[in-house]
Design goal:
The protein is an alpha+beta fold. The protein is built from eight helices and eight strands, in the order H-H-H-H-E-E-H-E-H-E-E-H-E-E-E-H. It has a three-stranded mixed sheet, with no helix packed on it. Strands 6-7-8 form a three-stranded antiparallel sheet.
Length: 357
């Protein structure tokens, strides 16, 4: 920026808008002097110093603007999803949207990254792999819970559908999704699979499949569901006892025993966590109450699932061993972002009371 340009910028400064009275008076005097004649070298240096101070103040004020704007957008998305699911339920006569993303692999204990099997008491689910939410564990679905879910319209979930060196669909071709390591599929440039759509079917560039939670014979699929272990006060507004997941049963090599719920306080809610992905009927334009846009959460890694998630209360724990009973009706409790933050926590990032990502 040359001196002539600097002087033009200085002439456009409104001296009356400067809070510091001494600086405002000096600027007004210098501007008046500009109209009468020219600036001395000292006056030019003062002008440059004032412009630098103004620029520095603006930089400090705007340093977190992008992060706070993202947090504000996330809060708005969470509100819209909450309203959308509840509106859908009203319009569909007490039926929730179906076919949410399970955030797990198909089969008992199947890990969504390594394919390693978990123990009978719960699937393995190491943090920071595919799903960025850390405050989660797993429980097996029971016939009673699946039945209650079906009563309110939730009959299936989208699970990852893969196994090493196998032809899953019987067409004689082993696809990219039929790999021992699903992350390699996401990283590969030779296919159209991305983390956000990983739970969609191969026809939609994903690796998922809809799994029926309760078949006509009355038997469940045996799959696990993800459950919230981040404490109840964060999502329900009332103090609760967080799950004690220490000392979980042994799991297969490579698994994380801290992800299977070993003990829990009797009477506390079982909150199922599901991803709100494109495969859900919530985003079917032909459905009454269907939403038209699938929100994306971008504060996760490129290999992680970047959608929002819903917490549904499906039961209450009945004993210290992790057993649980179905409730009379499944309830939507909260919407969380792809990193497991609640709406209030995102609001804290927006107003600066909580560190932004």
């Amino acid at each position: 920026m040359n001196m002539k340009s600097i002087l033009k910028h200085f002439d456009r400064i409104d001296a009356a808008s400067i809070e510091d009275k001494k600086v405002a008076k000096r600027v007004a005097k210098l501007q008046a002097g500009r109209k009468q004649g020219g600036f001395t070298l000292l006056e030019l240096l003062v002008v440059v110093a004032i412009l630098a101070a103004i620029a520095g103040t603006a930089t400090i004020a705007l340093q977190d603007t992008d992060a706070r704007a993202s947090a504000a957008a996330h809060v708005a998305m969470m509100d819209e999803l909450n309203k959308g699911i509840r509106t859908y339920r009203v319009l569909k006569k007490n039926q929730y949207p179906d076919n949410f993303d399970a955030l797990l692999g198909a089969g008992i204990g199947a890990h969504p990254v390594t394919g390693a099997a978990g123990s009978a008491a719960g699937a393995t689910f190491p943090a920071n792999e595919l799903v960025a939410i850390e405050d989660v564990g797993t429980v097996p679905l029971t016939v009673d819970v699946a039945s209650v879910m079906a009563d309110i319209g939730m009959t299936q979930l989208q699970y990852l559908n893969y196994t090493a060196a196998a032809d899953l669909d019987g067409d004689g071709v082993t696809t990219d999704c039929e790999s021992a390591n699903i992350v390699s599929t996401i990283e590969s440039r030779s296919n159209a699979v991305v983390a956000n759509n990983i739970f969609m079917t191969p026809a939609a560039n994903g690796c998922g499949a809809a799994v029926t939670l309760l078949d006509p014979a009355g038997a469940t699929s045996g799959d696990q569901v993800l459950v919230w272990t981040g404490g109840y006060e964060r999502v329900m507004g009332a103090a609760g006892v967080a799950h004690d997941i220490a000392g979980a049963p042994a799991v297969a090599p490579g698994g994380d025993p801290g992800d299977a719920i070993a003990t829990s306080a009797a009477g506390t809610p079982v909150l199922m966590v599901v991803g709100i992905g494109p495969s859900s009927t919530l985003f079917n334009a032909n459905e009454l109450g269907g939403m038209t846009t699938v929100p994306v959460y971008r504060h996760v890694g490129p290999l992680q699932y970047g959608r929002f998630a819903a917490l549904f209360e499906i039961g209450t724990f009945s004993d210290a061993a992790g057993g649980y009973d179905a409730i009379d009706q499944v309830n939507l409790v909260a919407i969380i972002d792809g990193a497991g933050d609640t709406k209030e926590e995102e609001l804290g990032e927006w107003d600066g009371t909580r560190n932004t990502i």
